[in-house]
Design goal:
The protein contains 19 helices and 31 strands. By secondary structure, it is an alpha+beta fold.
Length: 750
């Protein structure tokens, strides 16, 4: 493991001699995507004409299949295979996952049992997608349905939760809260949310001499290859899994679904390439979602604004198929100071489809309660919401006691307030009008933990001086290709045009993939380490070569600049050196590494959101007028892609506050929203003036790049800022999200 000092001796990213780090570089893959030449999984051209698979989803939530008639489907034109639990080719039986990062086998049609509405229960493969779709509709399935266990709110008793093992308790919360001169005790609810990626889950596979090549849309190619190998009971080295271009992930593609398993299995059985994709409607049930929550926040304070008691307790539904539930309290442990603290999360078993992580899991839901509660408490105390937060700014992590590696939350709030014009806000709701609209301002804090996970990367240079980065990483639209190219170019002292980035291949040096806001830091740190190892190998080659102008120089004096190596005014191009002294090229491997004492620090990204909304007091319509986010998230690698990620998260927060949610039909255990016509998300006209500002920051404790993630921070707290602005505009507190017109009208003061 490296120390922080090692990262600084030398560190080409810190030196940034070429100025590539932080620059708003255009996307490396942008021209291909704009020209339609970046093939997504379903568009990959196989070596021979493919067949097409269609999955049949279950029509009940829980129960058993008691009859299946596939005769009409089998006789349908072009059909090559019809599978159910009765005749699916042999593959692995269900088994618990080894761990999250490894997973376990994911068999299809394992039994006659139905576990959730929309679970794949049959499969048709035909010569065309139209024939497969038509045949799938001919399968007649009889069920013995159980009573759906789908009413989460009937079983969620957030008010009754008492401390248990695994909860966080500091001090004496109950007595401190009871004795607090000023108290707040409220409950918030958030609904199910779906990922709704532009690209559905899709796969294509074919076999050549016992080797399976599969292209799929996933966030972690290494994990998915392992799961496919376990499921098909084969060696993972016999699988070439690719995921080069992905049309959105948001956590939903961290997992492996039936499309990949069925494409590989059907291709093996039929001897031809097979494509399988989820329909938009099937994705709503057949892939994971963010679970609904109920959250109770209790705050106790003294009249001068000091928090003496702080608690966030959350309950969400968990599937009978998966233990995952939304942990809403995790972020709150490090946000505000209070000597007496109680945090807990519970999962309530249900018969709904499995839940899972969705962008900013925990924070996205949890800040919708705590950051609104902080606003309410500030009003009770007669304090400005920012000043109330500043009063309760901790000196060290208030739960772990560890020092923060760097914390600029107060600066985010102060500078954001100045830029947004917070001093013009009227504390009393309902005082500002613009025509028929009531206008209000709101703000909220933001936090997201920082992670650095194990990863590897290889970097090579060829006789033409071209640098190639290779890594089992993915780009889910966040800009991974681009930042890896920037890191490699700056490290090796070459132009961006001389860097090639090859990612999305599972057999490449492994990474945990894209997600959790750890992707750029983890993959980038490994890329920097590989580059540093390659630099040393090239420097050693140059000083040992009698034909090099650097011959017999000191290895530590070698600099990499302008596409070459140099010691003082003695220079040589990489192309000349490598073509002469190492015509086969050179390569090096590197691993991500945190400072040896990194675990002794509390590491987070921070931000502050500001929103202005207009509320129509007659119709209850709410419109976002403008929004600003100010963020402190380490060194910024690419100002353009980072801002895109932050503003995208902010917009999603607006959606969570005002638009988005999927209702559960408890009679059938299904979601009511099953496409993008009935599942509401903002469109361009719903988002007014919006900007994201990134403060100068370098966190040397976090990783050798000094960077942190941005993909989830933009969503944490943004919805709460909108909710607080709604209250400031009209005086209505709606604690059941989203804040729709009928809820708002019902909550308006007389």
């Amino acid at each position: 493991m490296s120390t922080v000092e090692d990262f600084q001796k030398p560190n080409p990213i810190k030196e940034n001699r070429q100025g590539l780090i932080g620059k708003p570089v255009d996307r490396y893959d942008g021209p291909l995507k704009v020209a339609g030449k970046a093939p997504y999984a379903y568009e990959v051209q196989p070596p021979s004409p493919p067949s097409y698979g269609v999955m049949v989803p279950s029509g009940i939530a829980q129960g058993r299949i008691i009859s299946i008639d596939t005769a009409a489907a089998e006789a349908s034109p072009g059909v090559k295979a019809v599978w159910t639990y009765l005749n699916v080719p042999k593959h692995a039986a269900p088994a618990p996952p080894i761990d999250f990062w490894t997973g376990g086998p994911e068999p299809v049609f394992a039994s006659d049992r139905v576990h959730y509405f929309g679970e794949p229960v049959a499969f048709v493969c035909a010569d065309t997608l139209e024939n497969a779709t038509a045949a799938a509709q001919l399968i007649a399935i009889g069920y013995a349905a159980d009573e759906p266990n789908a009413d989460f709110h009937a079983k969620a008793h957030v008010l009754d939760i008492v401390a248990a093992e695994g909860d966080v308790r500091l001090g004496a919360f109950e007595s401190a809260f009871a004795e607090a001169p000023v108290q707040l005790d409220d409950v918030w609810t958030t609904p199910v949310q779906n990922h709704c990626q532009m690209e559905p889950h899709a796969s294509i596979a074919w076999w050549t001499d016992g080797i399976c090549e599969a292209h799929t849309s996933c966030q972690g190619v290494v994990r998915s290859r392992g799961i496919l190998a376990m499921t098909l009971e084969m060696e993972k080295e016999d699988i070439l899994l690719r995921s080069r271009y992905i049309g959105g992930g948001f956590g939903g593609k961290m997992f492996t679904y039936a499309d990949l398993i069925l494409a590989a299995l059907a291709s093996r059985e039929l001897g031809c390439p097979v494509k399988v994709a989820f329909t938009r409607q099937h994705m709503m049930h057949g892939t994971i979602h963010r679970p609904a929550t109920e959250q109770r926040v209790r705050l106790g304070a003294t009249p001068d604004g000091k928090l003496t008691a702080l608690s966030l307790v959350g309950v969400s539904h968990a599937s009978e198929m998966s233990p995952f539930f939304e942990r809403t309290s995790g972020f709150a442990k490090s946000l505000y100071a209070s000597p007496n603290r109680f945090f807990a999360d519970r999962g309530v078993s249900s018969g709904l489809p499995p839940g899972g992580p969705l962008r900013a899991p925990g924070e996205a839901s949890g800040t919708l309660s705590l950051e609104v509660a902080m606003d309410e408490m500030a009003e009770k105390l007669g304090l400005d919401p920012i000043e109330f937060r500043v009063i309760n700014e901790p000196e060290v992590d208030p739960t772990s006691g560890k020092p923060f590696s760097i914390r600029q939350l107060v600066r985010c709030m102060r500078e954001g307030a100045q830029m947004f014009g917070w001093d013009k806000r009227q504390a009393t709701p309902g005082l500002v009008r613009d025509g028929r609209w009531l206008v209000g301002m709101g703000m909220a804090g933001a936090i997201r933990g920082n992670m650095l996970l194990p990863a590897k990367c290889s970097i090579a240079v060829d006789p033409d001086g071209i640098v190639t980065v290779r890594q089992g990483m993915t780009d889910i639209g966040t800009g991974t290709y681009t930042v890896l190219a920037q890191i490699a170019a700056e490290t090796m002292g070459v132009a961006m045009a001389d860097v090639r980035v090859i990612i999305g291949e599972a057999e490449a040096p492994p990474t945990p993939g894209s997600g959790g806001q750890f992707g750029a830091a983890t993959a980038g740190s490994a890329a920097l380490a590989a580059g540093m190892n390659l630099r040393r190998a090239i420097a050693a080659l140059a000083i040992a070569d009698p034909n090099s102008p650097l011959h017999e120089g000191a290895i530590d004096d070698v600099q990499f600049r302008d596409g070459g190596v140099a010691i003082g005014n003695r220079t040589e191009s990489l192309k000349a050196l490598i073509s002469r002294a190492a015509p086969q090229g050179l390569d090096a491997l590197g691993e991500s590494a945190q400072a040896t004492d990194g675990g002794n620090w509390s590491q987070h990204t921070f931000g502050a959101h500001f929103a202005e909304v207009g509320v129509d007091p007659i119709t209850g319509e709410t419109r976002l007028r403008r929004m600003l986010g100010v963020f402190a998230c380490g060194r910024i690698l690419n100002a353009k892609t980072a801002r895109s990620q932050l503003t995208g998260g902010m917009i999603w927060g607006v959606s969570s506050a005002l638009h988005e949610g999927n209702e559960v039909d408890v009679r059938f255990g299904s979601f009511l929203g099953q496409d993008l016509a009935s599942y509401l998300v903002p469109v361009q006209a719903d988002i007014g003036e919006l900007d994201a500002i990134m403060l100068d920051e370098v966190d040397d404790i976090a990783n050798p790049l000094g960077i942190k993630g941005v993909g989830e921070l933009g969503m944490a707290g943004s919805g709460a800022a909108v909710a607080n602005a709604v209250y400031n505009a009209c005086g209505a507190r709606v604690r059941s999200y989203p804040i729709t017109p009928e809820k708002l009208i019902a909550a308006l003061p007389q």
